Predict the 3D structure of the following.
Amino acid sequence: MAASAPLPASPGSGAPAVVPIGLSEESLAVRDWVHDFAARVIRPAAAEWDEREETPWPILQEAAKVGLYGIDMLQTMHADQTGLLMAAVNEELFWGDAGIGLAIFGSHLASAGIFATGTPEQIVQWIPRCYGSPGDIHLGAYAITEPDSGSDVGSLRTRARRDGDDWVIDGNKCFITNGGIADVHVIVATVDPSLGHAGHASFVIDKGTPGLSMGAKHHKLGLRASHTAEVVLEGVRVPSENLLGGEERLEGRMARARERARTGTLEERGSSSALRTLELSRPIVGAQAVGIARAAYEYALDYAMTRVQFGRPIITNQGIAFTLADMCTEIDAARLLCWRAAYMGRAGHPFARAEGSMAKLKAGEVANWVTDQAISILGGWGYVRDLPVQRWHRDAKIYTIFEGTREIQRRVIARAISGGASEPR
Ligand SMILES: Cc1cc2nc3c(=O)[nH]c(=O)nc-3n(C[C@H](O)[C@H](O)[C@H](O)COP(=O)(O)OP(=O)(O)OC[C@H]3O[C@@H](n4cnc5c(N)ncnc54)[C@H](O)[C@@H]3O)c2cc1C
């Protein structure tokens, strides 16, 4: 950092100051432990891995060694009956750094897909393989998006065809977190394109399976410590055991969809397992955005208290103080929406008003607005790469894009509150 940067000694390094609604003593201890790791290990490494734009293997190893990356952590989070711990853990990790946070959390996208769709045997067999062990770290990837199928998930072109006892998969995926370098790829493909979502099936594919390869690596605006790439599938042959949920369930779902198409009823529209996985993960993704926003807000608050212009700290200007008050309020509002949806998801309450999408929409918008305001409060120092605020703003942008763009979240909410009347017929 430049010697002349007018900064407080330790800007924005405060402990989580969240009202711990619903978190047990044990969960609070886990959250604080994750915060400590984020402050000690992740944040000091953030600028380096952002510049290197590579998977931060040494940080993953450190996280695995202490039990933060791996099946044990997953079990700890799932043991929490409130559903809030996973949101709280994500907020702390991404407060540390979003790119490294996603490098650590990215395998959960794959394990969540396996958990949502797999049989009990498949869950036991495949989820541990997404993480490996501290001495042999594995990664998971969850691949839906394709060059011609982004928001319109129903139009997937990656095709899975039955061939004897096997399935053969062909297609191209893009923007895949851990794509091509993962040990386990969960690939969502279409078995019957005429059925839209209902014709989709998810397959687990081991590293080294012939025909699966990495395409181009994407070079990104933010989240640069998280690997994102295309995945190419050319005649990838997997045994029928790799179809998540099994043949019977897939056949049953497709038969019901064909019957609905014949009778013209539209219920269950958009209810594929891939969409359910996304809706349940949205509050957690929202919590990540809250973590980024909180990092930027804390930094800007410390700066405003310290930076003197016109003979007094800039926070004595109401324009600055009120902006910080709004930043703090918006972050808390976003967190509460995320926690509500995380709680509902865990308790099995249906998202009748698309509460998962509401949480992700609000948190993404808050992260973008807060990080933008933080840059303004730091003036020129907000804009230079010596300080992290610009990185937080770059990282925040993705939260209006992935796991459903801001427009798609609004579309999902509109459809839920209007009983489908908002959809073109
Ligand atoms: C860093 C990163 C990591 C990612 N990780 C993964 C991953 O691990 N796995 C995975 O499967 N995918 C992943 N994605 C893909 C991501 O989910 C998609 O980029 C996203 O869903 C949007 O799809 P698209 O980029 O094709 O945009 P498009 O769908 O082409 O959208 C373009 C624009 O049109 C708008 N639009 C489209 N349809 C409508 C509509 N009906 N109404 C209003 N507006 C509309 C969109 O909101 C957007 O503004 C990742 C992307 C990035 C950048």
